[in-house]
Amino acid sequence: MSDKLNVNVIDHPLIQHKLTMMRQKDTGTKDFRELLEEIAMLMTYEITRDFPLKDIEIETPVSKCTAKVLAGKKVGVVPILRAGLGMLNGVVNMIPAARVGHVGMYRDPKTLKPVEYYCKLPGDVEERTLIVVDPMLATGGSASAALTLLKEKGATSLTLMCLVAAPEGIKVINEDHPDVPVYVAAVDEKLNEKGYIVPGLGDAGDRIFGTL
Ligand SMILES: O=P(O)(O)OC[C@H]1O[C@H](OP(=O)(O)OP(=O)(O)O)[C@H](O)[C@@H]1O
Ligand SMILES: O=c1cc[nH]c(=O)[nH]1
Ligand SMILES: [Mg+2]
To answer: What cofactors are annotated for this protein (predicted)?
Structure first.
């Protein structure tokens, strides 16, 4: 496998600006949450760019015409608990009919290995395009385990959407799940000795929920 990372970086100026606000250590829970939701919304706009459309006949106040609507692609959003919940509303605001699944996964602080503790998915998971959301892609262990679990449960079409990634994490997803497109707002420099992304933004879950 080549060393080149296969990743889509959505670095729109609005996203970069909001992410910089989130990174700052003095940004409080309320602003952190709001900014994450706004970025998730903007990223959803970008990752749905190739969603299929179909023509329908409508009547405006002026005349009849043919116009485009979404072709009814079935979508599911799967936040990786807890921190993924911070991106959920942003996606659902843009795709209101999306069903929501939940995967509970935390990273053991000593081993840095993912521990699964919850999974509840829509019944027709195999028919949906699933957008898996988690703000942080560090070692890649949690997201890779979540994607494996979703495939075991029948998922056939998966996209991973994260806020900040370390190169190490992207590489793991590329190797373990070459079929899964990865979208991020930023690729940071590296992981530190505790597995935190540098410069990153700290522990996303703690900052979203105020559990620091
Ligand atoms: O790529 P990895 O090395 O697996 O690290 C990333 C994971 O760590 C964080 O979750 P955390 O374990 O802090 O759980 P939380 O969301 O409940 O805070 C984050 O939200 C990812 O799920
Ligand atoms: O930097 C990191 C790494 C893992 N999880 C986080 O929330 N932040
Ligand atoms: Mg956490």
So the answer is: Mg(2+)
CA atoms 38, 21, 134, 80: torsion sign: negative
Rg of the chain over Cα atoms, rounded to whole angstroms, equals 18
Domains and CATH numbers, the chain: 8-209 (3.40.50.2020)
List, as residue ranges, the binding site for 5-phospho-alpha-D-ribose 1-diphosphate: 82, 107, 134-142, 203
Q: Is the CB–ligand 2 distance for residue 36 below 6 Å?
A: no
Does residue 51 contact residue 73 with C-beta atoms inside 8 Å? yes
99 DSSP β-pair partners: 76
Q: Residues 6 or more apart from 114 whose CB is under 8 A from it?
A: 105, 106, 107, 108, 141, 142, 144, 145, 146
Mean pLDDT of all residues belonging to the chain? 96
Enter the ipTM. 0.98
The pair of structure tokens assigned to 148 is 């494996």
